């Protein structure tokens, strides 16, 4: 009995405790608006230059899923669609093409004498085109992000589930109709490799971005070459057919570098020149593999050192990227940068915004080569909430850009007819495209690369839901102090901005504020409502060194204060 009484008392105490805990949690909701003070020290001595390379793009040849081909017929031509009805057209694949290395052809037989008004035919759900023939709307969306680098062609696409299905650059150059293509076993589709090594170097050139070539390091998701057999990967002497892999592998990174950088008279540079590009591509970054540094891949370190020494010897200026995470402890091998990949829930990513404030300041720089809100099994296609967490994480990268030198969202594109991974930045089909909130979030960071960052101090009882940074950047004519702030929480915030140390006046008439928000934090964009969540820019007549502003719940706000007579500072930048 006594025991029972004590247990009951304990239960009552516990529920009281729970009650008070939950009251504590609910309290901020019922308090309404929050207040916050954000102080920005714009003095020149406290400022630091952000690396020119900070924000770029990661292009993975994944989930494009529209290419038919392969050695077998009938070839899988899903998810292509027939235009007109099935009685008006007959479509099949057969081994009848005039290209000996690419034998599968698509046959269309038109069965209608009087065809329907809309015509008949077949469309594929997305087309990238060859060479510089990229789809304009899609490429403009990339240009608008002002990317400083392009990491390609993967991702796991580089590795393959099996080595024999990995990306091999030699098979992706030359006349595209002669490229054999290969089965991308990670993303489960046949790729014709029309968008190959050469085209991706060209894409980087078109975007004015540094190419970052990720090559297969003799390791796939499920098999790997022994380090004693890695030599042909480093320096090829023979070329063998893919069917002979992985018995003798010919992967050859030095040849790939000569293809990009060699003179037009060199063995591989002349191949590039014959394709119409006698000028060298300015390839300055390579990554040795993708996600290959973990204890299921014991050969990585051995392979890495062989590649490292070969590349450093032949091209001393090339920056070499290791897959091993050096953020918590130093690497045991030389590298210029190391990859860091992060996929988390929105709440966890928001909480990890300060990840790199504790990282050692010596040693290789950080390349956050894949980041996104992503949870396995979650079918979200990219919500406002996800973009806010990512914005906070990127603000953390700006603040730590003395050690973080590059960052890119993943994945960049998804074909809506063949969604292999959600969410993505840009969704397209054969004729439409839209940006997810994560795409629009990135447009707020386009001016950060190469800008100047200032220290900020946030004072608020609500600071656990806020993240902020301040930069000075310039466009052709003007200089702006840009203060970005994420309000990740459900409350409106009455914000006081205070910029100290400004050596120029703020011109309110040229200042602006841009806000990314929506009614519901789980709102997404779609083909039906492609701009439901998008940045909205307006004038900022209240702009001043000291100013008030309201941050709406679940929002990302960028204040651009135009600065007058900043000529001297501009010269410094
Ligand atoms: C933070 O704000 C509180 C209340 O607004 C104020 O009392 C305190 O002095 C501030 N702290 C700093 C460091 O500015
Ligand atoms: C925001 O706070 C300031 C004082 O810090 C106050 O003067 C102003 O009225 C508040 N604005 C709103 C909209 O609550
Ligand atoms: C602010 O900028 C506008 C537009 O460039 C200019 O006409 C105006 O004179 C500037 N105001 C001040 C106070 O410098
Ligand atoms: C948000 O709500 C307002 C008022 O209810 C409505 O007019 C507006 O269209 C909504 N916006 C979105 C993006 O749903």
UniProtKB/TrEMBL annotation:
<comment type="similarity">
    <text>Belongs to the glycosyl hydrolase 51 family.</text>
</comment>
<dbReference type="InterPro" id="IPR055235">
    <property type="entry name" value="ASD1_cat"/>
</dbReference>
<dbReference type="GO" id="GO:0046373">
    <property type="term" value="P:L-arabinose metabolic process"/>
</dbReference>
<protein>
    <recommendedName>
        <fullName>non-reducing end alpha-L-arabinofuranosidase</fullName>
        <ecNumber>3.2.1.55</ecNumber>
    </recommendedName>
</protein>
<dbReference type="Pfam" id="PF06964">
    <property type="entry name" value="Alpha-L-AF_C"/>
</dbReference>
<dbReference type="InterPro" id="IPR017853">
    <property type="entry name" value="GH"/>
</dbReference>
<dbReference type="InterPro" id="IPR051563">
    <property type="entry name" value="Glycosyl_Hydrolase_51"/>
</dbReference>
<dbReference type="InterPro" id="IPR013780">
    <property type="entry name" value="Glyco_hydro_b"/>
</dbReference>
<feature type="domain" description="Alpha-L-arabinofuranosidase C-terminal">
    <location>
        <begin position="369"/>
        <end position="555"/>
    </location>
</feature>
<dbReference type="GO" id="GO:0000272">
    <property type="term" value="P:polysaccharide catabolic process"/>
</dbReference>
<dbReference type="InterPro" id="IPR010720">
    <property type="entry name" value="Alpha-L-AF_C"/>
</dbReference>
<keyword id="KW-0378">Hydrolase</keyword>
<keyword id="KW-0732">Signal</keyword>
<dbReference type="Pfam" id="PF22848">
    <property type="entry name" value="ASD1_dom"/>
</dbReference>
<dbReference type="GO" id="GO:0046556">
    <property type="term" value="F:alpha-L-arabinofuranosidase activity"/>
</dbReference>
<feature type="signal peptide">
    <location>
        <begin position="1"/>
        <end position="32"/>
    </location>
</feature>
